[in-house]
Give the backbone structure.
Amino acid sequence: MKEASLSLSDIAKAAGVSTTTAHRALAGKGRISRATRRRVSKVAERLGYRPNLIARSLRARRTATLGVVVDALDSSFYAHVVEGIDDVAQAQEYAVLLACSHGVPERERRLLELLLAKRVDGLIVQPAGTTENAAYYTALLEQAVPVAFADRYLPGVHADSVCTDNVLGGYLAGRHLAQLGRRAIVLVAPSAREGATTSLRERMQGFARALEDQGVPAARVLGTDLPADLSRQERARRAVHAHLASNKTADGLFAVQDGLAVGALQALREAGAKVPGAVSVVGFDDEDLCAYTHPPLTTIHQPMREIGATAARLVLRRLQEGYAGLPSQRIGLEPHLVVRQSCGGGSDGHRRTERDA
């Protein structure tokens, strides 16, 4: 029997059961004996039967697919967020379609339209930092399209969102440097486009608040005058080099992303500045590379997989419980400080400080 002509009734006939029993056995539903379930499954496998998902989706008016748009895939941060989404999606028998916007609002909008044209059931988005697409998202919500923002949100757009508490994370970084006795502190900033996102703005706000509370002078911000097309590592490397070359001092450094911290460490190493002896360095994210930089990087850990998993749960909740009557949720996950050798931590690189500010 050719695979293309196989139907559920063919499987039922070959297994000696009714079509309803065959359906329940393959779907794992209903009260069916283990022996019957096993027999039907073996027949389906032997004959090469695959359910007609297109027909099923037309009947249910759903495709069991989530559309995901993230900024990029150039770090383990994005990989772990997407893994969290996929874990939850697979557990609910959903597939994931993934695309990258590179933080460009027009591209983000075009990708979302493409995903919607492919009939995804819901959207998980790491939105671009500007408010250019705010009206677009509001229109989607008015059309009852399930949307959840991950890692950042758009002010004024009442979509579900899940982020790390970035203000707290920035505060923990600033307080740690201050408590180490650092007073000439610099902050390595992202590009203007990335810096406009709520996540990075809030990190900088929390950091500034911590220095003020600790009686430390405000940090000098580095890197804002550099070209936007530089990689994070090169942006930080050039910014720190320029700062040191102008005979300005720095005994503490906070990079609002780990990629920036890696570039800063390279610049300090090239300039002969001892880390952590002369300069203590703190990053943000706790990407996989942090334990293997030279020296291992002290950083703010955010629960990357849980960001993705929570965003997926928010969208699936909308799909399962219906859109009407569910208020939007903004969920903040707790960060914590991981002290490694760039701030004088132990050689194991995994000592954690208190989490509360």
